[in-house]
Amino acid sequence: MVPGRKAGFQLSQLLDSKSELDPFKGNGKLMVMGQPNNLLQILSFILPRLLLLESAMTTTSAPSTSPVYSKTPLLSFLERLQETALATLGTKDFDAKFYIDMSLRFPLPVVENVFDCLPRSADGTVSPSDLEGFIAKYLGAPEEDLVVVEPPDYVPEPEGFLPKVKHPAVRAWALEVHALWRNLSRAVSGSVRDQPDLHTLLPLPERFIIPGSRFREVYYWDSYWVIRGLLASKMYETAKGIVINLIYLMEKYGHILNGARSYYTNRSQPPLLSAMVRAIYSCTHDIGLVQKTFPALLKEHEFWNSGIHQVVVHDAQAESHYLSRYYAMWDKPRPESSTIDKKLASNITDGYEKQQFYREVASTAESGWDFSSRWMRKPGDIMTLATTSILPVDLNTYILGMELDISFLAKASGNHGIADQFLEASKAQEKAIRAIFWNEKEGQWFDYWLDNCSSGKEGQNFESGKQNQAVFCSNFIPLWIEPFNSDEKLVETVVGSLRSSGLVLDAGITTSLTNSGQQWDFPNGWPPVHHMIVEGLVLSGSDEARLLAEQIAVSWIRTNYAVYKKMGVMHEKYDVKCGDYGGGGEYVSQTGFGWTNGVVLAFLEEFGWPHDRDIGG
Hints:
With about 625 residues, the chain is mostly helical.
């Protein structure tokens, strides 16, 4: 769905008589509104109209059968290897992703034939020595198809770096965090480009920053906070390279993947490409980057606002609101966690129910919140995942932000027509968020439960009882976006609700109030959520909101600092109940760590650290 449809435009309004598409006018240039246009204007004019024509010929509902991507032969083999390794080596320190990230040293038929001929015991297992010998000869370790590279714009202490940080110990630590960009900088090896069929790693064109540890590849939504940190580090070219890589994925696959591996093609992640481009533009005013990314931004908007992702909800006044959900194009075990998913589903006997469970698992991974009681019909019971039956308030907030970003970037590029269209679309999205998610009594925005159906074709009638009134930090994410953080009365209400929610603890914001054992629940706090809530409070301009923002940021920085001083590493998440590194979920806490580093640097840039403020640790 193009923005025109969401905002109530008709096809005839967009393709009106004022618009000329005549290649023979204007000395052979495309004429729009009677004037010759540059490439950005041409693409910006044509693409939305092509998308609108496509939408006009199809329904906004889900297809009759939900989409499913096919699995490659390489992934099928590596899943077999993964299962054999688990059976042979046992569960202790076993990481399923390690085996799926391996590359082949020889063509797949050769490797598979040797694997099939390995001696096996009566129960089908392979001896540890035979398995280890096979892996050493025929497979490359997960890191072998990556190259450690020096970022071209890294300097040990950039000019103008964190000028508000006056405390010597905090400044020294910030420089160490800044230096971690060197440790996390990678490029794909030539073998990935020359023989892509031997790798699950995808051949990205530019250098990139990895999160760290088992996360050896680019991840979509992580990249936003990596970029915010790179901008604080004055590493503008590295930040631009990350965006170019994401555009490559969009152009090749039609959406930006969860991560840069072949097993992630079946899903995306929270859509923040436009926010990345706008953040970079605000620092560099690089209009060339804006022009290069613009077609991808329009395509991403279409991806999230059409087909299986889109659901229609009719409010009490019978007004229709178009909202979006997470919905992976997959109904099998996730290859990177195949052994885990199969074990979870082992007691499901019905084939359709098993496929649907696998889809819910993959869709939860698409949300970035894998896993959380937020997505469960019975909190704490992962078998009741129902992510595709939820309209998430944060996803729809990101889409509102996307529309505002596209409008801003189009206007900066001189394309006022597209700017106006997306501004109108943003008004419709804002109205939908207020109508469906906002709860005035509680002063929060709540996720909305859908009826049990996979299609949004018929639309659903709004019922206030379908708001999920459990307390999650996502309930406050809309404050990050301008229409909400500029509403003075609303900000006052939300600040009071946040203070009394139970989420704000001494060491940071907890993800939820439910201790489910999953990593996106109590007592874990996560960098991206801290940043969005804190920045939203700051952008409101309210003195009270800024005080709360600084309180949260200072607590979070102290937690990061204390753990770093104790362990010498930055973690992906933290336990904000006790001020230590986080836990829970299907893998141990990872270090590195891209988005953690980015948020710490962004907070120090915003708030600084005076001489007389204690850092602890």
